[in-house]
Batch of 4 targets.
Target 1
Amino acid sequence: MPVIRVQDKVETLRAGDLLTALCTDPGVLQDIPAWCRINGHQVVGTETRDAEYIITVRVGPAAGGLA
């Protein structure tokens, strides 16, 4: 579910925007970077804090966002 939520939010953003996802599922540390590679986005940071996984994504040029 976190990847779908990130995908939905990215569609509302512009290329170059940053999105930070706060998740509790450790699988996102592999899932979101894989999704980013496939879709032309970039993971610019990951952090683990207690039981939270924080991933920051830079939206790529193929984003459907606002003009």
Target 2
Amino acid sequence: MENPIIKGTRISVYDVLNWMANGMDKKEIIKDFPELSIEQINACLAYAGSREYKINIAS
């Protein structure tokens, strides 16, 4: 499985999703990782949603 990295960072989409799954909200993530923006975090969520949709279609 690929693990895409957020452009201009060394932070993976998986990292962001994992932080959110463990209770961090967007503001907390940005406080800890100021190189991220709300738009980038939202893009991670959209990516995850898109992958889930594609997996369900293929099943």
Target 3
Amino acid sequence: MEEACELCHRNPVKTTEHHLIPKQHGGTNGPTAVLCSACHRQIHALFTNEELAGFYHSLERLADYPGMKRYLGWVKKQASEKRIATRTSNRKKR
């Protein structure tokens, strides 16, 4: 589906549904956000599911995280059709 990303606001982009509270933590029927695949991958590269469930379960909190702020400032300047590579955060535990 192509529409605007609720996080980076690029438009039109191919979007995916992001569960603001991960499904494994009870978010199956919870709130979701429409995100471009680049933002969706970046979120999961930066945060563990425990962090997403415990604190980063809103677009405002996600966008306010310093690493995500830097990413959003950069990705907003990228063409919507460009394939964006994602790097895993050094602080995220595997």
Target 4
Amino acid sequence: MTTKGIKTVLHPVSDLTKAKHVYAALLGRQPQSDSSYYVGFDMDGLQVGLVLGGGPQGMTSPVTYWEVTDIEAKIAEIVAAGGTVQDPVREVGGGRVVATVTDPDGNVLGLLQDR
């Protein structure tokens, strides 16, 4: 299955308002999405997101999400190669599904597919 490249990087934050200002200064633009639980910046196709409290996954460090054409098949490939499913496939809205897996050292790898 094809991996297209990095599509999204999520950063867990404790205060969205404060973090939003810092990332806006860093990225030189205002957020495209701004809600009570998520702030997202579009960097010419790369999404840089701020997730309050680590989001539903409880992230404690940034997670990079790789865009794939078939998320279930890619997970199977990664597991066969020695990875482990951390969070199974779930819908996050707009036809997008995400999942996370870990490599043998416990590094978290995000996967996403737009259906």
